[in-house]
Every structure is written in C-alpha cells, then in structure tokens.
Amino acid sequence: MWRTLLQVCSLLIVAILESSCGGGRSTIPASAPHSTVPTPTLLRTLYRVVNGGDRMTTIGPDERSSYPLEGQVYYVPDQPASGRTTLNRLINSGGTDHADAINNLMGYSQDMVLGFPWTGASGLGMAQLSEFLNSGTGDYALLAPSESLPGYSPQALAVYGYPRFGNASEVLLSLSAGGITVESNKVAGGVVWRWFWNGVEFENNFAYGGEIQAAFYVGDNPNLNPTEAGDFYGRENPILAHGSPVVRFENQGNTQITRAVPLNWDPTVFGGDQDHPVIWDSVILGKDLTLNFNNMGPVAKYTTHVVLPGKTSGSLTSPITYLRGNFNRYWTYDAQSQQLNEVTGHIVNGCSNNLPPYVFNTDFGGVIISDSTAAYAMGIYGVSTAHGGWVSSYGLWSFPCGTTDTSESAYNFNVLSPASASGWLFPAGESTYNAYMITESVQTVAAKMSELYALGVR
Description:
Elements: H1 2-19, E1 41-51, E2 54-58, H2 61-66, E3 69-77, E4 87-92, E5 98-101, E6 108-115, E7 127-134, E8 139-143, E9 152-166, E10 172-177, E11 180-185, E12 191-197, E13 200-201, E14 212-218, E15 226-227, E16 246-252, E17 255-260, E18 263-264, E19 278-279, E20 284-290, E21 299-308, E22 312-324, E23 329-334, E24 339-342, E25 358-360, E26 364-370, E27 377-383, E28 393-399, E29 413-419, E30 424-426, E31 429-440, H3 442-455
Antiparallel strand pairs: 1-2, 1-3, 1-19, 3-9, 4-5, 4-6, 7-8, 7-9, 10-11, 11-12, 12-13, 14-22, 15-18, 16-17, 17-20, 20-21, 21-31, 22-29, 22-30, 23-24, 23-26, 25-28, 26-27, 27-31, 28-29
C-alpha cells in the first residue's frame, strides 16, 4: 500500500509544478529547445548468500530466498554492451564452492551468468569488484568495499560496479551546529535521515521516497523521476531496499556534503523490479547543507546540486521534507508583508488518491509545519524566480495513513517542499538551488524568515 501512496505523492509533486505557473511570479520557458533526455541503465543486484560453508554470489529471488542472506554487494548492468564484460559464477568439481570470475579458474566450471559489469570506472560512484579467498577453507566470496571477513584476502577483478552495504540499513554521517544535529545515510543516497532540534527528532524516514532530499522530474513525465535516496522498494524488508550509489559523503566545517547517482523512483517504468533497480548514471543529485548559516543558530542553508549531461527540460523539488506524523499544523509566511497564516484546515488527507497538495505562492517566504503546541516547527524559506531565486511554489501535504504511530519509521508523515516551475530548462553540467531550513517555534521560524529577507539571501 505504501508503494502506491508514494507514487501518488510523486504525481502530486508534479501537480504543484503544473498548478503554480500563474501570477507572473516566475519566469517559465514557453518551450524547451535543445532539451535532452538522459538514458537510464537497468541494473542487477548481486547478493551474497551462505550455503553451508560456501559464501556465494547470486541474483534474483530464488536463491536469495532459499539461503541465509548476507545482503547486497554490488549493482552491475543487466545487459551486455560496449565497455562491459560477463561476470560468471563458477562451481568447483566437488560442488562445494562457488567463485566469481571473468576468466577461467582452475578446477572450476561455468555455473551461471551474474551480470555484465563495466571494464573500467566509467561513471562516478563505481568501485572495483574484489573476490576474496579464505586460504584456510578454500572458500571464495564477493565482498563490498565496506566489508571485511576474518580469514579472507582480496583478489581484485578487472571489472566495476556500484558498491552496496551488505545487510546494513544505515551508514550515518553526523553533523551538529546551531542547536541542530543532522544524520545522513550513505545506504540511502546520502540523504538526510534524521534531523534533531532541542532533543526532538523531526524527520520521517519510512521509505526512500521520503526523508529530506531532492527529487528531479525529466520533462513533464512523472515516471521519469531520478530520486536522490533510491527507489520505492524496501521498507517491508530493508535488506532488499535499493539505495542510490553515493559519490561524496563528508563534512567540511559546518557543512555536510553529499552527492548521489540517483535511481528512478519507479524501476518498473524501465523494466526493473525488486532485483533490478534503474540508475540515471549520467545524473548527479546532492546537497551542501550548512548548519548555523550566517551565525543564525537554527537556520541551515540547503544548496541542491544537480548535474546533467545536457540541457534538460524538467522540474525540481528540493528539499522535499518528510516530518513525523505529530507535526500536524500547517502555516504559510510571506516575509515581505510579515504575514503568518495557519492553513491547517485547508490541508486534505493525501492518503486518498489524486487529491492535490496545498499550494502557496510568495516572492519571499515559505511554508512551515509544527507540532500541536507550535513550539516545535520546521520551515523552508526561498525566493521566487522574479527576484533572483528559483522557487515557483511551495507544497504542503498530509499522509496520516493507517496508523496513529508518529515514530520516524511509521506510515504517518507530513510534507513540505519548495518546487521549481514545470518545464524549466536546466543547464548542462552542474547547477545549484538554495533554500533555507529553520527549526524552532513557529514564531521564531517566521522571525528568522524575516531576517533572511532583510539579508537579501537568494
């Protein structure tokens, strides 16, 4: 059920973009001349299972469901092509050990084709595959770069893929400043996974379509949706979740920097499924998140980075921000007029299909979601295109779907986000888009938005 909801949520994001073009507040191209559409790649997930004393690499549901699963080790292409070669699984003559190779291995014969990895590191985020050998037992096993096993020594293979993280659902990078602590998750494209202020965790991370991240839409097709965290598989079994590969994952001072090679939110659009994610391998999405921006305490500058191979017509929501279900009061703020309005009564229950979000337009300002007391709130501030920013509209959603549980992993969340206009012509190469996230009481969030307006930030 959650999969359907999040697909609807993606469509509602597009509804914001398409409904927010009036009012003369944004500069929208009438058409997108010379726009290109990047080509995504269908992948296979390589898993490692344990069959007695034999660690072996496998693909698909049969063996990963039949043997103890040690998790995902790599993504590799599903089909042969130039610059790729065949990765085979071999078996020894006694049938007691499997090994992975691109060439013959003495004493082993062909068992199955695992995939078609690259022969060079042709894209960002790739790593060389290594087959490890336990010299004591004679067991071969494919390990991800983040893994180590006692007794196993690496033997590099001359092929490349996107590394995964075994059974780990979290590999976290933490940063604290200005009273805020954030944790980003390398397993899920490096997106912000938790957000704390004054001892309270604000964020919902139920599924990879949530969190705090960027979502990009190619053209006007909601199915062409590179998503920073990953695709819609996984929350019912996080071991099988498809996270986007990470290119950068580091802190520099008060700034957390992450970049990901995004997966398509719905892999089935390109023939994918639970074992076959789809990657936009010529696209990069990511963030520079600076806490205590301009020494303003609970104000964080969120700079979205988009890298495209050519001029591309599309739209962007970033940071689309999913909050826990107890944050259930909704506000808008116009910093120019200093007008704060509660709009909770206008927010519809998004758990029913095809219901639109609440859309707010302002040249300077943004949207806020708070708890019932208004003492804990998060707002996002931006500037319209008419005044040197990039934001066309802001959206507010409510998804209290099927539970009263308001924990971070519950199917109960509320959403706020700025969005660009539909049909924006994004440049080739790297471009950046600023928004400002504020965490405090509702009144303080509004006051900080007024400070940002006075500073003239874009």
